[in-house]
């Protein structure tokens, strides 16, 4: 499917960074990656040149790597610069965040200094709910809200740890430190848990491992969040390093 053919398809949902279209098959959707960028629960808005195409490629490569390592994803096929055919899934209403090094909200909420390496990586669950500002949840809160079962939380934790192990090792080979990242999961029509959404510089903190300067090392969306400049260049550099490592 090309970018032009998708325009005639039925738009099911438009999010901050992607549009979801229906296809002739109810079990298959098309994801279109936009250049729009938002931060701080959409209070800050902008565009990052070519971001959609970069994130589509980055996600494609990382999903390929994860599939090889036994982590199933919703991706069927990447069909153009910005489009993927994906399996329809019921999204688990949790953002699963994995942290290796303290940054972002962890520093803000706990006082742990930016850049502190965590002895054990953290797996955290946030409620996917913009009206509530995506709050951090506990297992007991998730149970009280009946969001998902304890067994599902165990599965999510285990998969998130596997993704972390695979991506940390891969990014290290690219000369990039995987600081933290956010995953989303969904269940397909057979009830199989699949990795969904995207894994890209929008959803990961990625630092140039060889760069000690706190601002210069940032290759991800923090360049946009913190007005560090050269946002698109940071994203492109991540893709270039991934491509050179895969070839
Ligand atoms: N993240 C994301 N979407 C969100 C919230 C966080 O992709 O809605 C990613 C973010 O890019 C970072 C990680 O999850 O890689 C941890 O984010 P954090 O909780 O520190 O929140 P932030 O500082 O972005 O508010």
Automatic annotation (TrEMBL):
Supply the CDD domains for this chain.
Answer: SAICAR_synt_PurC (cd01415)
Q: Which InterPro entries match?
A: SAICAR_synt/ADE2_N (IPR028923), SAICAR_synt_PurC (IPR033934), SAICAR_synth (IPR001636), SAICAR_synthetase (IPR050089), SAICAR_synthetase_CS (IPR018236)
Q: Which keywords label this protein?
A: ATP-binding, Ligase, Nucleotide-binding, Purine biosynthesis
The UniProt catalytic activity note for this protein reads: 5-amino-1-(5-phospho-D-ribosyl)imidazole-4-carboxylate + L-aspartate + ATP = (2S)-2-[5-amino-1-(5-phospho-beta-D-ribosyl)imidazole-4-carboxamido]succinate + ADP + phosphate + 2 H(+)
**Matching Pfam families:** SAICAR_synt
Recorded GO MF terms: ATP binding; phosphoribosylaminoimidazolesuccinocarboxamide synthase activity
Q: Which GO terms describe its biological process?
A: 'de novo' IMP biosynthetic process; cobalamin biosynthetic process
Q: What class of enzyme is it?
A: ligase
The SAICAR synthetase/ADE2 N-terminal domain covers 11-241
* Enzyme Commission (EC) number: 6.3.2.6
Associated pathway: Purine metabolism; IMP biosynthesis via de novo pathway; 5-amino-1-(5-phospho-D-ribosyl)imidazole-4-carboxamide from 5-amino-1-(5-phospho-D-ribosyl)imidazole-4-carboxylate: step 1/2
Similarity annotation: Belongs to the SAICAR synthetase family.
The family database entries (PANTHER family) matched by this protein are listed as: MULTIFUNCTIONAL PROTEIN ADE2, SI:DKEY-6E2.2
Supply the name of the protein.
Answer: Phosphoribosylaminoimidazole-succinocarboxamide synthase
User: Per the UniProt entry, what species is this protein from, by scientific name?
Assistant: Leptolyngbya foveolarum
């Amino acid at each position: 499917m090309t970018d032009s053919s998708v325009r005639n398809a039925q738009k099911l949902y438009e999010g901050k960074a992607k549009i979801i279209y229906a296809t002739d098959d109810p079990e298959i959707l098309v994801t279109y990656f936009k250049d729009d960028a938002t931060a701080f629960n959409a209070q800050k808005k902008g565009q990052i040149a070519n971001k959609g195409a970069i994130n589509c490629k980055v996600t494609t490569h990382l999903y390929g790597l994860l599939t090889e390592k036994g982590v199933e994803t919703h991706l069927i096929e990447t069909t153009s610069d910005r489009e993927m055919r994906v399996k329809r899934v019921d999204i688990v209403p949790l953002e699963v965040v994995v942290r290796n090094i303290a940054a972002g909200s962890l520093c803000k909420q706990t006082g742990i200094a930016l850049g502190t390496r965590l002895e054990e990586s953290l797996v955290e669950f946030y409620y996917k709910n913009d009206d509530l500002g995506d709050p951090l949840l506990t297992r007991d809160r998730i149970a009280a809200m009946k969001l998902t079962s304890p067994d599902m939380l165990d599965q999510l934790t285990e998969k998130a740890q596997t993704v972390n192990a695979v991506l940390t090792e891969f990014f290290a080979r690219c000369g990039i430190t995987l600081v933290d990242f956010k995953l989303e999961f969904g269940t397909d029509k057979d009830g199989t848990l699949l990795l969904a959404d995207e894994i890209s510089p929008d959803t990961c903190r990625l630092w140039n491992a060889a760069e000690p300067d706190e601002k210069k090392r940032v290759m991800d969306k923090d360049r946009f969040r913190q007005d560090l400049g050269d946002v698109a260049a940071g994203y492109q550099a991540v893709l270039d390093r991934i491509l050179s490592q895969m070839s």
